[in-house]
TrEMBL record:
Entry similarity comment: Belongs to the azoreductase type 1 family.
Cofactor(s) for this UniProt protein: FMN
Alphabetized PANTHER family for the sequence: FMN-DEPENDENT NADH-AZOREDUCTASE 1, FMN-DEPENDENT NADH:QUINONE OXIDOREDUCTASE
Protein name (database record): FMN dependent NADH:quinone oxidoreductase
EC number annotated for this UniProt entry: 1.6.5.-, 1.7.1.17
Length: 198
Protein backbone atom coordinates (compact mmCIF):
# COMPACT_ATOMS: atom_id res chain seq x y z
CA UNK A 1 0.00 0.00 0.00
CA UNK A 2 1.31 3.44 -0.94
CA UNK A 3 0.50 6.09 1.65
CA UNK A 4 0.71 9.81 0.95
CA UNK A 5 0.80 11.78 4.22
CA UNK A 6 0.23 15.52 3.93
CA UNK A 7 0.99 17.82 6.83
CA UNK A 8 -0.41 21.35 6.97
CA UNK A 9 0.35 22.46 10.51
CA UNK A 10 3.47 24.58 10.98
CA UNK A 11 3.75 23.44 14.62
CA UNK A 12 5.90 20.35 14.12
CA UNK A 13 6.29 18.14 17.19
CA UNK A 14 3.52 19.83 19.22
CA UNK A 15 0.90 19.74 16.45
CA UNK A 16 -2.18 17.68 17.25
CA UNK A 17 -3.15 17.16 13.60
CA UNK A 18 0.34 15.79 12.91
CA UNK A 19 0.15 13.47 15.94
CA UNK A 20 -3.26 12.22 14.88
CA UNK A 21 -2.12 11.84 11.25
CA UNK A 22 0.90 9.86 12.44
CA UNK A 23 -1.38 7.60 14.50
CA UNK A 24 -3.52 6.93 11.40
CA UNK A 25 -0.40 6.16 9.34
CA UNK A 26 0.87 3.82 12.09
CA UNK A 27 -2.40 1.87 12.08
CA UNK A 28 -2.32 1.64 8.29
CA UNK A 29 1.24 0.30 8.38
CA UNK A 30 0.39 -2.20 11.12
CA UNK A 31 -2.47 -3.49 8.97
CA UNK A 32 -0.35 -3.37 5.77
CA UNK A 33 3.29 -4.01 6.76
CA UNK A 34 4.68 -3.61 3.23
CA UNK A 35 3.41 -0.06 2.91
CA UNK A 36 5.51 2.82 1.63
CA UNK A 37 5.01 6.29 3.10
CA UNK A 38 5.63 9.60 1.37
CA UNK A 39 5.30 12.53 3.75
CA UNK A 40 5.01 16.13 2.60
CA UNK A 41 5.08 19.04 4.98
CA UNK A 42 3.15 21.62 2.99
CA UNK A 43 4.18 24.38 5.40
CA UNK A 44 7.94 23.90 5.03
CA UNK A 45 7.75 23.17 1.26
CA UNK A 46 4.68 25.15 0.25
CA UNK A 47 3.05 25.13 -3.14
CA UNK A 48 2.95 28.63 -4.62
CA UNK A 49 -0.31 30.55 -4.67
CA UNK A 50 -1.72 30.35 -8.18
CA UNK A 51 -0.32 33.16 -10.30
CA UNK A 52 -1.01 34.02 -13.93
CA UNK A 53 1.85 31.83 -15.14
CA UNK A 54 0.43 28.76 -13.36
CA UNK A 55 -3.00 29.31 -14.85
CA UNK A 56 -1.45 29.77 -18.31
CA UNK A 57 0.45 26.51 -17.82
CA UNK A 58 -2.79 24.70 -16.97
CA UNK A 59 -4.65 25.93 -20.04
CA UNK A 60 -1.99 26.21 -22.77
CA UNK A 61 -1.76 23.24 -25.18
CA UNK A 62 1.55 21.39 -24.80
CA UNK A 63 2.70 22.27 -28.33
CA UNK A 64 2.67 25.96 -27.37
CA UNK A 65 4.64 25.51 -24.14
CA UNK A 66 7.52 27.86 -23.36
CA UNK A 67 10.35 27.05 -20.88
CA UNK A 68 8.56 29.34 -18.40
CA UNK A 69 5.32 27.36 -18.63
CA UNK A 70 7.21 24.07 -18.37
CA UNK A 71 8.73 25.29 -15.11
CA UNK A 72 5.42 26.67 -13.82
CA UNK A 73 3.44 23.46 -14.35
CA UNK A 74 6.00 21.27 -12.55
CA UNK A 75 4.46 21.71 -9.08
CA UNK A 76 1.07 20.65 -10.32
CA UNK A 77 2.31 17.76 -12.48
CA UNK A 78 4.39 16.33 -9.66
CA UNK A 79 1.61 16.67 -7.09
CA UNK A 80 -0.93 15.03 -9.41
CA UNK A 81 1.46 12.16 -10.29
CA UNK A 82 2.09 11.53 -6.59
CA UNK A 83 -1.62 11.65 -5.80
CA UNK A 84 -2.50 9.26 -8.63
CA UNK A 85 0.22 6.87 -7.48
CA UNK A 86 -1.03 6.75 -3.85
CA UNK A 87 -3.57 4.22 -2.57
CA UNK A 88 -4.27 6.10 0.65
CA UNK A 89 -4.00 9.81 1.46
CA UNK A 90 -3.74 10.95 5.08
CA UNK A 91 -4.24 14.69 5.47
CA UNK A 92 -3.46 16.61 8.64
CA UNK A 93 -5.88 19.51 8.95
CA UNK A 94 -5.40 22.19 11.60
CA UNK A 95 -8.58 24.28 11.78
CA UNK A 96 -7.65 27.93 11.16
CA UNK A 97 -10.34 30.62 11.29
CA UNK A 98 -13.01 27.99 10.58
CA UNK A 99 -11.22 26.66 7.51
CA UNK A 100 -8.10 24.85 6.33
CA UNK A 101 -4.53 26.16 6.42
CA UNK A 102 -3.66 28.14 3.29
CA UNK A 103 -0.84 25.74 2.35
CA UNK A 104 -3.36 22.90 2.06
CA UNK A 105 -5.57 25.15 -0.09
CA UNK A 106 -2.56 25.91 -2.31
CA UNK A 107 -1.94 22.15 -2.76
CA UNK A 108 -5.61 21.67 -3.71
CA UNK A 109 -5.34 24.51 -6.24
CA UNK A 110 -2.49 22.64 -7.92
CA UNK A 111 -4.16 19.22 -8.02
CA UNK A 112 -7.62 20.33 -9.20
CA UNK A 113 -7.08 20.50 -12.96
CA UNK A 114 -9.58 20.02 -15.76
CA UNK A 115 -8.56 17.15 -18.00
CA UNK A 116 -6.19 15.76 -15.38
CA UNK A 117 -8.11 15.20 -12.13
CA UNK A 118 -11.63 15.98 -13.31
CA UNK A 119 -13.40 16.24 -16.63
CA UNK A 120 -16.66 17.52 -18.00
CA UNK A 121 -18.68 15.17 -20.13
CA UNK A 122 -22.26 15.16 -21.35
CA UNK A 123 -23.24 13.80 -17.94
CA UNK A 124 -21.61 16.69 -16.07
CA UNK A 125 -18.35 16.70 -14.12
CA UNK A 126 -16.49 13.47 -13.42
CA UNK A 127 -13.73 13.02 -10.84
CA UNK A 128 -10.71 11.20 -12.26
CA UNK A 129 -8.89 10.43 -8.98
CA UNK A 130 -10.58 7.12 -8.28
CA UNK A 131 -10.08 4.19 -5.94
CA UNK A 132 -8.36 6.15 -3.15
CA UNK A 133 -9.02 6.11 0.56
CA UNK A 134 -8.70 9.46 2.31
CA UNK A 135 -8.28 9.98 6.06
CA UNK A 136 -8.55 13.45 7.57
CA UNK A 137 -6.81 14.21 10.87
CA UNK A 138 -8.52 17.43 11.96
CA UNK A 139 -7.46 19.43 15.00
CA UNK A 140 -9.34 22.38 16.49
CA UNK A 141 -9.38 24.58 19.56
CA UNK A 142 -13.15 24.21 19.88
CA UNK A 143 -15.69 21.47 19.16
CA UNK A 144 -17.22 21.27 15.68
CA UNK A 145 -18.39 17.67 15.27
CA UNK A 146 -21.58 18.52 17.20
CA UNK A 147 -23.14 21.40 19.08
CA UNK A 148 -23.53 25.11 18.36
CA UNK A 149 -20.28 25.50 16.37
CA UNK A 150 -20.95 22.62 13.93
CA UNK A 151 -22.04 24.91 11.09
CA UNK A 152 -18.83 26.96 11.49
CA UNK A 153 -16.65 24.04 10.40
CA UNK A 154 -15.47 24.62 6.83
CA UNK A 155 -12.73 21.99 6.98
CA UNK A 156 -14.43 18.61 6.64
CA UNK A 157 -17.40 19.77 4.49
CA UNK A 158 -15.05 21.63 2.14
CA UNK A 159 -12.59 18.73 1.83
CA UNK A 160 -15.43 16.26 1.27
CA UNK A 161 -16.78 18.56 -1.47
CA UNK A 162 -13.59 19.39 -3.33
CA UNK A 163 -11.80 16.02 -3.00
CA UNK A 164 -15.10 14.24 -3.67
CA UNK A 165 -15.49 16.33 -6.84
CA UNK A 166 -12.09 14.99 -7.93
CA UNK A 167 -13.28 11.42 -7.29
CA UNK A 168 -12.01 10.85 -3.75
CA UNK A 169 -15.33 9.90 -2.21
CA UNK A 170 -14.09 7.25 0.23
CA UNK A 171 -13.19 9.52 3.14
CA UNK A 172 -13.10 9.24 6.92
CA UNK A 173 -12.51 12.12 9.30
CA UNK A 174 -11.08 11.89 12.83
CA UNK A 175 -10.84 14.87 15.16
CA UNK A 176 -8.76 16.14 18.03
CA UNK A 177 -11.33 18.57 19.39
CA UNK A 178 -11.35 21.18 22.11
CA UNK A 179 -7.58 21.52 22.47
CA UNK A 180 -8.15 25.07 23.78
CA UNK A 181 -10.98 24.08 26.13
CA UNK A 182 -9.91 23.46 29.74
CA UNK A 183 -12.34 20.57 30.28
CA UNK A 184 -11.48 18.76 27.04
CA UNK A 185 -7.87 19.48 26.14
CA UNK A 186 -6.13 16.87 28.30
CA UNK A 187 -8.13 13.96 26.86
CA UNK A 188 -8.59 15.30 23.33
CA UNK A 189 -5.68 13.56 21.60
CA UNK A 190 -6.14 10.23 23.35
CA UNK A 191 -9.85 10.26 22.54
CA UNK A 192 -9.13 11.05 18.89
CA UNK A 193 -6.55 8.27 18.55
CA UNK A 194 -8.96 5.80 20.17
CA UNK A 195 -11.63 6.78 17.63
CA UNK A 196 -9.54 5.72 14.62
CA UNK A 197 -11.20 2.93 12.66
CA UNK A 198 -9.58 2.26 9.31
C1 LIG B 1 -4.16 31.23 13.26
C2 LIG B 1 -5.02 30.28 14.05
C3 LIG B 1 -6.38 30.26 13.84
C4 LIG B 1 -7.19 29.40 14.58
N1 LIG B 1 -8.53 29.40 14.37
C5 LIG B 1 -9.31 28.59 15.10
C6 LIG B 1 -10.72 28.59 14.93
O1 LIG B 1 -11.27 29.29 14.10
N2 LIG B 1 -11.45 27.75 15.68
C7 LIG B 1 -10.89 26.89 16.61
O2 LIG B 1 -11.61 26.13 17.23
N3 LIG B 1 -9.56 26.87 16.78
C8 LIG B 1 -8.76 27.70 16.06
N4 LIG B 1 -7.42 27.68 16.25
C9 LIG B 1 -6.84 26.66 17.15
C10 LIG B 1 -6.32 25.49 16.33
O3 LIG B 1 -7.35 24.89 15.58
C11 LIG B 1 -5.70 24.45 17.24
O4 LIG B 1 -4.61 25.02 17.93
C12 LIG B 1 -5.24 23.22 16.49
O5 LIG B 1 -4.72 22.29 17.40
C13 LIG B 1 -4.20 23.55 15.42
O6 LIG B 1 -3.73 22.36 14.82
P1 LIG B 1 -2.25 21.80 15.12
O7 LIG B 1 -2.23 21.45 16.60
O8 LIG B 1 -2.13 20.63 14.25
O9 LIG B 1 -1.27 22.89 14.79
C14 LIG B 1 -6.60 28.54 15.53
C15 LIG B 1 -5.22 28.54 15.72
C16 LIG B 1 -4.43 29.42 15.00
C17 LIG B 1 -2.94 29.43 15.22
Amino acid sequence: MKILHLISSPRGAVSFSIKLGNAIVEKLVTANPNSTITTHDLTSSPFPHLEEVHLNSFYTPLENFTPELTEAVKHSNEAIAELMDADVIVIGVPLYNFGIHSTLKAWIDHIARAGQTFSYSGNGPEGLVKGKKVYLAISSGGVYSEGPMKSYDFTEPYLRAVLGFLGMVDMKAFRVEGVNMPDLKDQALEKAIESIVL
